[in-house]
Sequence to fold (414 residues):
Amino acid sequence: MLGAVNIRTNLALFASASALGIAVSACGSSLPPPSDRLASAEAASRSARELGAEREPKAALHLKLAQEQIEAAKKLMADGDNKRADLVLQRAGSDAELSVMLAKEHNARGEAEKAQEKLKSMKNGK
Amino acid sequence: MLKRFGIRSSSLVLASLVVACGSTLPPKELVDARAAYQTAAKGPAAQQSPAELHVAKQALDQAERSFNDEGDSAPTKDFAYIAIRKAQLAEASARAALAAKDKDAAEREASNLRDDQLSRARGELQSTKSNLEKTQDQLAREKAAREEAEKKAAQALADLQKIASVKQEQRGMVITLSGGVLFASNEATLLPAAIIKLNEVAEALIKGNPDANITVEGHTDSQGQRDYNMNLAQKRADAVRDQLVARGVAADRIKAVGIGPDRPVADNKSAEGRANNRRVEIIVQPHK
Fold:
């Protein structure tokens, strides 16, 4: 009798553990390392730097965020949490790409101002 | 007892998991992502960067799906975070495109301005060139006219030298005609041969020195009374002047003066000297 109860108890515990296991696996199962995502985020960061993102405060901020998240993702990958790392790298990529565009905007504004100054000078006959 | 505990504990675990993954209130990140997309969609991104705005919408949709599926989960927040960045990127892209358009417009205007300035400069250059050519033509014409006048003057001088003695003196060009050739003794009427000669002189003067002032001087030797000589000298000078005027020399630029015996060129004691003193001098002074 006691044995039967124990079996039932064990079965119940197993069911709970399985349910927990299914839930855990639904939120964070292991995946292959997101190497492409990592490469992509790092490439975007490099582009931002090359475009002078570090000289423009907003672009510099997002570049820094991207960099921090890339580092965090690398740690997650080292710990085997590739799923979380993948999402963190997506965040990093979005920050790096935003940094690229902010740097481009900054450069485009600079060029427009230069062209307008030149035009003004011509109009003033200098 | 153990059975009940076991069933109850599994239910609690499941319930807590459901609560964890299925909150109905959206997380702040998703609320912010929705607002960020709305801001971007209402701004210049709709026109300037529709592709980036579309990507932002897809990112927001993914966050919404994640929220529907998993509620307020870490991935939902991550997707919302990404959606915010994509919306910001669409806005930055639109601003960059507008700046590029501003630059293009300024450069186009500058280029047009340069073209206008260049065109004006070319016009001015052409005008200057045209004026220069006109001046050069004018100078060439003047030079040709001067050369022609000099040639005529040289020819006239050569002609005169054939028929009279011509000397260049301080008072001008002096053409000396012997009195014996022009007049009979004690007469003031021109001989026929003299008229022919004076006509040639007139022609040479008109050709070579049309604007010159001319003085005709009558000279005599010292024989006889001075008054008579003075009178004769004046009459002879008048006769020569009249003949020159008759042949076309301008009357207002020619005058006749009787010098008489006062300026001999030779000794009056000899017949030859007296013959040389009897003369008419035509002084040609270039017009100033």
Notes: The first helix of chain B runs from residue 2 to 21. Confidence is low (pLDDT under 50) at residues 1-23 of chain B. Chain B touches chain A at residues 2-3, 6-7, 9-10, 13-14, 17, 21, 59, 70, 73-75, 78, 81-82, 85-86, 88-89, 92-93, 95-97, 99-100, 102-103, 106-107, 109-110, 113-114 (CB under 8 Å).
